[in-house]
Amino acid sequence: MENSRIISPSVLSMDYSKMPEQVAQLNASPAKWLHFDVMDGHFVPNLTFGPDILKGFCKLSDLVMDVHLMVSDPAKYAPIFIDAGANMVTFHVEALDNDMEKVQSLLDEIHKLGAMAGVVVKPKTDVKIIQPVLSSCDMVLIMTVEPGFGGQSFMEDMMPKVKWLVNQREAKQLSYRIEVDGGINGTTYKTAVDSGADTLVAGSFVFKGNIIENVKALLK
Ligand SMILES: O=C(CO)[C@H](O)[C@H](O)COP(=O)(O)O
Ligand SMILES: [Fe+2]
User: Fold this and answer.
1) What is the rounded distance in angstroms from the CA atom of residue 127 to the CA atom of residue 170?
2) How far is CA 84 from each of CA 55, 80, 190, rounded to the nearest angstrom?
């Protein structure tokens, strides 16, 4: 079943000296989600936001909080970010040693806490390993850059993973969303959408120039 397209701007690329104004622009744009990249300086070589910052964003916006955990211990941090206001929590299977029993129990735990749940795969990870947990995913996130930093180039060679997810969804009559993250701009989004992605994260593209027009450009 196809899903209608959702844009999830990544606040990793926001100008934090203008945070309330830029969140107001997102609220006034056709973006329905806000992508919040949590990095622990260990799973990835960069350090970003804690739960109190998410609480601040929640006070400024009713957008769906799409929290991407790039942390070594997602089972510890998922409940903390749900408590802080996360609506969707995605975590990396690599952080759980690609062990689908551990992945399944964290998906169940996130659902028990009342949030939507999904898994993320890095570029070098074979997406097919997640087949056993697909029926428990509200979303699967395909990284189209190495996680850790904004502003990198889109990896078109990840599109076979997106197409595999489309086929699995159809074959198993599932309804998870397919999100892509990294290097999405006014050109690359078309490749992702044509491959079957329905949820687009975009950071540097959205926050360079006119935020509302940039979000609109990804919905054309
Ligand atoms: O998860 C991420 C990086 O690890 C970010 O969500 C992503 O990189 C967005 O930035 P850009 O659109 O500039 O590539
Ligand atoms: Fe992200």
Assistant:
1) 16
2) 5, 6, 34
Q: Does the interface predicted TM-score (ipTM) exceed 0.90?
A: yes
- HSE value, Cβ hemisphere, 13 Å, CA-based, for 91: 33
- Tokens 């299977």 belong to 93
Given 37, 40, 66, 198, the catalytic residue: 37
Instruction: Based on the residue annotation, tell me whether 62 is a catalytic residue of this protein.
Output: no
- Domains in the chain, start-ordered, CATH in brackets? 6-217 (3.20.20.70)
- 97 flagged as catalytic: no
- Taking alpha carbons only, the member of 19, 99, 28, 36 closest to residue 71 is 36
Question: Quick check: 192 and 184 in contact, CB under 8 A?
Answer: yes
Helix (H, G, I), strand (E, B) or coil at 152: coil
Query: From the annotation, which residues make up the binding site?
Result: 10, 35, 37, 68, 148-151, 181-183, 203-204
Q: How far apart are CA 86 and CA 88, in angstroms?
A: 6
Predicted TM-score of the model (pTM): 0.98
φ and ψ of 56, to 5 deg: -65, -45
pLDDT digits (tens, 9 = 90+) for 175-213: 999 999 999 999 999 999 999 999 999 999 999 999 999
8 Å CB contact between 45 and 52: no
| 126-138: pLDDT as tens digits | 999 999 999 999 9
96's tokens: 């759980």
